[in-house]
């Protein structure tokens, strides 16, 4: 990823891609505290636009607030910086990765005395769980690793350290031949995917796990809004893994994963074992919205 052309916004200016480096004694590299976002820009019918940039920026600042990380730039500056990155790299659609991290000014667990640095990179990134998965659904395995207890890591923050848990789960599942991992919370109830929120559908009603130890996904929020507009009820409740075994349909949501149907969990077929009809309706509306084809949701698009 480091050796390519293009520009990365780094501490207030655009720098050539290869020069966007940091020292090996970067505090965040050692202690895992960096807050970040995953954001997508789409080539809409009216030009390239970043999807729900305000909400991603709000979540980035909330993550920093939770971890008491001072942010050296205001939201308006970072919102403009995202657009600048897409423009300067001449990208029509892309994934964006803003990150705020502590630098190499000091070592030791406390970050006091270290400066916050911010960078934003962007690059083309297709379907995270594969094009085929988008159509036919993916195979998921319940992880032997639990999602963090709410008093171990702060689930409302999207921060680097939490992803060590996601990495363990994702590697375990993918090395066993599955596409993604599903994590349960410490009480054994369904939490989320390694990088996605989950929805299941039973008898025409959409359910999601209570968002305790899971990230408050922005795609999740988009899907809840769209599902309501399509006339579906969305109920948050404690879900067990076997609630999913006997569901009619299931899907993951995430900025990277978008709306990805799940066809199998732990070698049990879910419903008909393919993308279900309600999932398909929501997925199709989701792509219409991000591609700027739904006037009512143009306010979610920040044109560059
Ligand atoms: N849960 C986790 C652990 C994630 O990493 C992500 C991706 N950011 C999500 C859920 C989905 O969040 P969003 O829809 O905001 O991308």
UniProtKB/TrEMBL annotation:
Family annotation (InterPro entries): Aminotrans_IV, Aminotransferase-like, B_amino_transI, BCAT-like_C, BCAT-like_N, BCAT_family, Class-IV_PLP-Dep_Aminotrnsfr
The protein's name: Branched-chain-amino-acid aminotransferase
Family from the record: Belongs to the class-IV pyridoxal-phosphate-dependent aminotransferase family.
GO cellular component, one term: cytosol
UniProt-listed GO biological process terms: aspartate biosynthetic process; isoleucine biosynthetic process; L-leucine biosynthetic process; L-valine biosynthetic process
This protein's pathway: Amino-acid biosynthesis; L-leucine biosynthesis; L-leucine from 3-methyl-2-oxobutanoate: step 4/4; Amino-acid biosynthesis; L-valine biosynthesis; L-valine from pyruvate: step 4/4; Amino-acid biosynthesis; L-isoleucine biosynthesis; L-isoleucine from 2-oxobutanoate: step 4/4
Enzyme Commission designation: 2.6.1.42
Lineage: Bacteria, Pseudomonadati, Pseudomonadota, Betaproteobacteria, Nitrosomonadales
Keywords (A to Z) from UniProt: Amino-acid biosynthesis, Aminotransferase, Branched-chain amino acid biosynthesis, Pyridoxal phosphate, Transferase
Names of the cofactor(s): pyridoxal 5'-phosphate
Gene of this entry: ilvE2
The protein's role, per its UniProt record: Acts on leucine, isoleucine and valine.
Species this chain originates from: Sulfuritalea hydrogenivorans sk43H
Single GO MF annotation: L-valine-2-oxoglutarate transaminase activity
One Pfam family cited in the UniProt record for this chain: Aminotran_4
Substrates-to-products reaction catalysed: L-valine + 2-oxoglutarate = 3-methyl-2-oxobutanoate + L-glutamate; L-leucine + 2-oxoglutarate = 4-methyl-2-oxopentanoate + L-glutamate; L-isoleucine + 2-oxoglutarate = (S)-3-methyl-2-oxopentanoate + L-glutamate
């Amino acid at each position: 990823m480091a050796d390519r052309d293009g520009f990365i916004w780094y501490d207030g200016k655009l720098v050539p891609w290869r020069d966007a480096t940091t020292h090996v004694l970067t505090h965040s590299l050692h202690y895992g505290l960096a807050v970040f976002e995953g954001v997508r820009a789409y080539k809409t019918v009216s030009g390239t636009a970043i999807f729900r940039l305000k909400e991603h920026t709000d979540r980035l600042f909330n993550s920093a607030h939770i971890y008491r990380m001072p942010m050296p730039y205001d939201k308006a500056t970072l919102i403009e910086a995202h657009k600048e990155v897409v423009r300067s790299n001449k990208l029509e659609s892309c994934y964006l990765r803003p990150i705020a991290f502590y630098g190499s000014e000091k070592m030791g667990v406390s970050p006091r005395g270290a400066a916050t640095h911010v960078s934003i990179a962007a690059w083309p990134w297709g379907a995270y769980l594969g094009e085929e998965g988008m159509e036919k659904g993916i195979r998921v395995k319940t992880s032997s690793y639990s999602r963090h207890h709410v008093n171990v890591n702060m689930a409302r923050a999207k921060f680097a350290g939490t992803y060590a848990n996601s990495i363990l789960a994702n590697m375990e599942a993918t090395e066993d031949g599955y596409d993604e991992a599903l994590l349960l919370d410490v009480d054994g109830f369904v939490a989320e995917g390694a990088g996605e929120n989950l929805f299941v559908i039973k008898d025409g009603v959409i359910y999601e796990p209570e968002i305790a130890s899971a990230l408050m996904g922005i795609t999740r929020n988009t899907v809840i809004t769209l599902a309501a507009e399509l006339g579906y009820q969305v109920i948050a409740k404690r879900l067990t893994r076997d609630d999913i075994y006997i569901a009619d349909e299931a899907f993951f949501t995430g900025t990277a994963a978008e709306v990805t149907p799940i066809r199998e969990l732990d070698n049990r077929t879910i419903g008909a074992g393919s993308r279900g009809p309600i999932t398909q309706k929501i997925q199709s509306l989701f792509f219409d919205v991000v591609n700027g084809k739904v006037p009512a949701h143009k306010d979610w698009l920040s044109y560059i």
